[in-house]
Structure formats: C-alpha cells, structure tokens
Design goal:
Strand content of chain B: 15-25%
Number of domains of chain A: 2
Structural class of chain A: alpha/beta
Largest interface: A-B, 27 and 28 residues
Number of strands of chain B: 10
Number of strands of chain A: 4
Shape of chain B: globular
Largest sheet of chain A: 4 strands, mixed
Number of helices of chain B: 9
Order of helices and strands of chain A: EEHEHEHHHHHHHHHH
Radius of gyration of chain A: 36 Å
Strand order of the largest sheet of chain B: 6-7-8-3-9-10
Oligomer: heterodimer
Number of helices of chain A: 12
Distance between the termini of chain B: 37 Å
Strand content of chain A: 5-15%
Helix content of chain A: over 70%
Order of helices and strands of chain B: EEEHEEHEHHHEHEHEEHH
Shape of chain A: elongated
Radius of gyration of chain B: 19 Å
Chain lengths: 378, 262
C-alpha cells in the first residue's frame, strides 16, 4: 500500500497488564485520522482498572507531524488526570525529545481574570470620567506653573525645542489651512447668496463671509485642522517616548516632563495659531469674493462691504478664540501622550483620544466664548 | 537532497542602505541541520543581513539562495511557499500585542494550513507547552515577562515546524540563565523538528554553546572577515579582530579605533 495514502489508525494491545497504543499509517497526510477522544475512550477501560502506564508504539512506516504530537500531549494529560502515565520510550527519538520538552513545565498558571460584566464596566466608565476631569485640572495646574516658570526664566524648557515646534505647527500647516479656508469661505458665500438673492441684497454676502470667517469659521476650522495635525502628532510623539522609556529618562535625569516636553509644544501652538487664523480669515474672504464675483458683486465692492461689516473687535474675538483653542488642543495632545500606555496599541489609543478630546474641548469652548461675547456685547 | 547539501548559499552579497554600503562581498553557505551564527560588533549589519535572508530587504547586488531558490526572483506563490518554511523571531519579539498568546501562535496555522479549529487549538496548546508556556493561551503579550515573550515568539515561529528558523538577537535583554535556557530550547526544538537555525547574536555564551558555524561581519572594513566554527576561529582565525571578539577582547590589548591587522 502506498504509505502516503494509507489511513491513520490505532489499536490497543495488551502486553501483560499494561495497555499499548499502537499507531499505524500516515498521520500527516491522511484525511481520516482518529480523534483524541476516540483514543481516550478506547483506553478508558484500562485506565479505570488503574493501570500505571500506557505505552505508545509506532509502526515502522508511520508518518507523523506536530498534530500527532499535539494529540499525544492531550492524551498525556488525560492519563495523568487518571493517575496513569504515557510511556513514549518505544517511539522515535525526535518524538521523545519533543514530548519531554512539552511536558517539562506542566503547571499552568491561574487563568487571567475574566473581563468584568456590563454593570461593572459602566461603573468603571463613570468613575473614569471623574478621574479624567481631575487629571485634566491637575494637568492645567501643573502647566500653568511650568509656563510661569518659563516666563520668569527659571524653566528647563529649551528654546530650540520651541522653535522646532513652531516650525512644525506653523509654516508646514499653511498649505492645508489655506485650502480648507478658501473652501469654507466659498461655502459661506454660497449659503448666504441663495437667501440674500431673494431680497436683491447680494452685496451683504460680504458681511456674512466677513463676520462668519473672522468670528467663527476661521478660528474653528483652523483649530480642527490643528487638532488633527498637531494635537495628534503631539500625542503620538509623547506616547512613543513613553513606550521607549524616554519620559522616564527625562524624569530620572531630574528634568520636569512638563517643562521639558509639554511647555515648548503648548507655547508653540499658542504662538502659531493667531497668525494661522489671520491667514485663514484672509483666504476665506478671498474665497467668498470669488463666489460673490459670480453674483455681480465685484471685488472692490466686496472688500468695502466687508470692511464696513467687520470691526477690529470682531477680529480680536476671533484671535482670543484662537489662543484658547490652541491651548486646549495642545493640552489634549500632550496629556493623552504622557498618559499613554506602553504598547503600540496604546499609542494609537492616545492619538485617537487626543483628537476626540480636542474636538470636544473646541466645541464646548466655542459655545462658552460665544455666550460670553453675547453677554458682554462684544 | 543529502544532509550534506547546502541549504542556504549567500554569494557576493552587497547590502546598502540609501547608497551607503553596509557590507560587501559576503560569501558563505549554511548546511542543513547547522546552527549558524551571524556575529560581529554592534552596528556591523548583522540584523540587516538577516533581513536580506528573510526577504525583507533587497540585496544591492549578489544573491541569496535558499534551497536553491532566490526569493526575489520567485513569484508570489513561490515566495509564499518559501515563507511557509521559515520560522522567524524578531529582536523585540514581534508578538501581536492585541492578540493573546494562543491567537498569536494560531496565526500561521490559520494562514497556511487547512487544519480544523480543534486541531489548531490542540497544536497551539502543544507549541506553547514546548516552550514551557502551557496554560498561558489567554494571556496577552503585555501581561507576561520579557523572557516569556521571547519563548512565546519562539512558539509562534515553530508553529508550522519550519525547515529554517531565523532568530534576531533571541537573548537580547535576558539574564544569562534565561538566555542559556532559551538557547538550549532553540537547539533542542530545531533538532527535534529537523530544522536549520540561523541566529544573529553577539552573545559569546550563545556563540560557543550552540553554534556549529558562524560568520563574522566587520563594521570597519564593511565585509566578512571569517567563516567557520567559533571554537576553531577563536584560536586560528587569520584576523586578530575575530580572535579578539571571540575571546572577549582578553587575548590582546584593545586598540581604540580598532586593530586592522589581517
């Protein structure tokens, strides 16, 4: 018979009192292979009699692979639990060595704890929210102290780092901020034009775009871009540093992670945001003017109208928003990074958390500031 | 194929990174059943050579034949078949951190075999038992020690009983005792499954206790200085640097900047 096509089989033989499990055929390629359960039940009678040993014997032409080994290991545990042992002394050398290795350490650890149930997770989630708020406030406090030390010249912050992060966050973001701003300006203009045309008041599209960009969309859209671009980068950088033990090294070298790592990032973003917002406002107005030109409001008319509509106070409110948003984005990014775990998955989580937190902070802060401006009649 | 036939042949290999030559004129062959060590000082390109051998980096010139086949001129299917025959562990383990140990070991089995779920589960149990990790199936890599992670990576590497096992610094970060146990485990397992082993390391203890043959790469001359059994090379290498390396610099004074006498 062709050994490759021969069926895998076993039979129980008895040498004296001890049973012997005789394996025959091709256990590697055969489609029909007996299961461990079949071997176990075939041995049950002998095991119930309390035989001390079950021998494994392979016929000369047996072809075997790791799956047969895996079965024998299971069988070994089955026999051991019934106070018997599996004897492989009559098997090939390689099989004996693998068997010895696989059974050398045979005391499994306690199982890892089961994941908690729904209520436990809900409670944990709620208490995490409270922890998050606490950590956020603590972070802001530490940051304020660190910035104060920087301003008074007592900080370990490196000026070189500050310039590096200004370059990273500012000039390199000009392209994407410009693109988004021109599109937002155009969207605002289209949105307004549809309504204003009904009253023949197309020229007021400049008021809409001007005020909309300067007070709201300029700062907000720039902030959203910076949250996705710079805030996420901060979280990924600091998270990776955390997993490379770099943050620990900063601490044990006697440096303050807050002053050394966080302050340059936060200050850089605070410094680059206002110029980016001014850029965004201007380009947004340009986009609006393009659409207005299609409605017979020429460029000069548009600019004149916008000048009348937008006061310096409006521009300032936008820039105040820019500074607040920049601080929040940088805090969200740095905090997520510094509190990241040490695995690659944790760094990914930190980045996600940085962006999600930043966007939530942005929208909440924007609403609060708008209410404040309204009450103060700015 | 006879046992004597060379399993891996590296001929006139030049490795470069961005136009900078790391090593040139690498020539050696590895026989079936060998425990072959790629050794040399830090930064000489040991791991890079391994990356070339396992098809992760393309040679600048020269070729590497494994079982007579060049990985880079092979088609997709052939590449897949070659990879099936390799077990690899990486310097930092390379375990998937979002999978349990059991799932990690099951990945190659699911990828390359048509075994049933039950068979795969039994095999995973068995492979983990081989490296002394039976019962750790449900643990995540982050929950076990560095030494256990190395052994779990070994279990994944041997999941398919590969013909060739590649190890990049298997004992990096382990204490001497754990490192020796891991060495013994590697040799024992590869001998039992009839595999050939290629190890990148600079650990002298490993080099002397398990290597049958080794190649020494030199960082300064950017080429290999010697090939042979470490026990032979430590006394008889034509190159002082190799003798010095293998005797841990004890045999002769260390010239700062490196001694270049052939």
């Amino acid at each position: 018979m062709n050994p490759l096509s021969s069926k895998a089989t076993f039979e129980i033989k008895h040498h004296g009192t001890n049973p012997c499990l005789l394996l025959e055929g091709n256990w590697r390629d055969s489609r029909e292979r007996p299961t461990v359960e079949a071997m176990e039940s075939a041995l049950d009678g002998a095991l119930n009699r309390g035989v001390p040993r079950v021998s494994i014997v392979l016929q000369d032409d047996v072809v075997w692979d790791a799956r047969l080994m895996a079965m024998l290991i299971r069988l070994h545990r089955y026999c051991r639990d019934r106070n018997s042992e599996l004897d492989l002394n009559a098997t090939p050398d390689a099989m004996q060595r693998l068997f010895r290795l696989a059974t050398a350490v045979d005391n499994p650890p306690s199982r890892p704890p089961k994941p908690p149930g729904f209520l436990a997770r809900l409670g944990e989630g709620l208490s995490h929210i409270a922890d998050d708020v606490g950590r956020f406030l603590a972070f802001i406090g530490e940051l304020a102290v660190a910035i104060l030390r920087f301003v008074t010249g007592r900080s370990q912050t490196r000026i070189r780092d500050l310039f590096y992060f200004i370059d990273l966050g500012g000039p390199k973001a000009v392209g994407i901020v410009s693109l988004i701003s021109v599109l937002v300006g155009m969207i605002l203009a289209y949105l307004g034009s549809v309504q204003l045309r009904q009253f023949g008041a197309e020229v007021y599209v400049a008021n809409l775009v001007g005020l909309g960009m300067v007070r709201e969309m300029g700062p907000l859209m720039t902030a959203v871009i910076m949250a996705g671009r710079t805030g996420a980068a901060y979280a990924a950088q600091l998270g990776t540093m955390q997993s490379n033990d770099e943050v620990d090294a900063v601490t044990t070298l006697g440096l303050s992670p807050m002053e050394y790592l966080v302050v340059p990032r936060v200050l850089a973003l605070i410094l680059v945001m206002p110029p980016l917002v001014i850029l965004s406002n201007s380009i947004g107005l340009g986009g609006g003017a393009l659409v207005a030109a299609g409605m017979d409001v020429n460029f000069v008319q548009f600019i004149n109208q916008a000048q009348d509509a937008v006061s310096l106070g409006d521009v300032t409110t936008g820039l105040v928003k820019a500074v607040v948003f920049a601080t929040l984005i940088a805090i969200a990014g740095c905090q997520a990074g510094l509190q990241s775990g040490r695995t690659s998955a944790a760094v990914g989580d930190a980045t996600t958390r940085a962006v999600v937190h930043a966007v939530v902070y942005l929208v909440v802060a924007d609403a609060v500031l708008n209410i404040l401006y309204d009450k103060l009649e700015i | 194929m006879t046992d004597e036939e060379d399993l891996i042949t590296v001929s006139n290999l030049t490795m470069a990174y961005g136009g900078r030559v790391i090593q040139r004129e690498i020539n050696f062959s590895i026989a079936r059943g060998d425990v072959f060590i790629i050794m040399g000082g830090s930064g000489c390109g040991k791991s890079t050579l391994l990356r070339h051998m396992i098809g992760l980096a393309i040679p600048a010139s020269g070729e590497i034949l494994i079982e007579g086949k060049n990985f880079f001129s092979a088609g997709d299917e052939e590449q897949k078949a070659m990879r099936r025959n390799w077990g690899i562990t990486y310097q930092s383990g390379g375990l998937f951190s979002d999978l349990t140990l059991g799932e990690n070991v099951a990945v190659p089995l699911q990828q390359y075999t048509a075994f049933t779920d039950g068979e795969i589960r039994d095999l995973v149990d068995y492979k983990l038992a081989l490296v002394g990790l039976y019962g750790y199936q449900a643990y995540y890599p982050g929950e076990i020690s560095g030494g256990m992670q190395k052994r779990a990576a070994l279990a994944r590497a041997i999941a398919l009983d590969p013909a060739i096992l590649f190890f990049d610094e298997p004992s990096a970060g382990l204490d001497p005792l754990s490192s020796r146990r891991l060495d013994e485990l590697i040799v024992e397992i590869s001998a039992s499954i009839g595999g050939t082993v290629v190890i990148v390391t600079h650990e002298l203890a490993s080099i002397f206790s398990i290597a049958t043959n080794a190649v020494f790469l030199d960082a300064e001359s950017h080429t290999q200085l010697d090939v042979g059994s470490p026990r032979h090379l430590v006394e008889n290498s034509r190159h002082a640097v190799v003798r010095q390396f293998l005797s841990r610099g004890n045999a002769m004074p260390v010239a700062i900047g490196g001694e270049r006498n052939p």
